[in-house]
């Protein structure tokens, strides 16, 4: 009897963004460490986004390293989404006037 393929271990990364500088990698891990990162995010009500390819790219960074320029737009969209989900707006933000 053929066994189903084993699932790869969970992977997780966390980014920190201060609103002034490029986001940087604040945590990364696989397996149990990834599960702990996810649990801490949930505990602090930090929105989670699942994208294995993006995690693979970000996991290549060293802790504390800023995201690469080619990921700025992607990460900016995720940060904007996370702000919106949490009902937050960046400091100094004003909603554009409706046309």
TrEMBL record:
InterPro entries: T3SS_substrate_exporter, T3SS_substrate_exporter_C. Transmembrane segments: none annotated. GO terms for biological process: protein secretion. Gene3D superfamilies: secretion proteins EscU. Keywords: Bacterial flagellum protein export, Cell projection, Cilium, Flagellum, Protein transport, Transport. GO terms for cellular component: plasma membrane. Pfam families: Bac_export_2. Belongs to the type III secretion exporter family. Required for formation of the rod structure in the basal body of the flagellar apparatus. Together with FliI and FliH, may constitute the export apparatus of flagellin. PANTHER family: FLAGELLAR BIOSYNTHETIC PROTEIN FLHB. This is Flagellar biosynthetic protein FlhB.
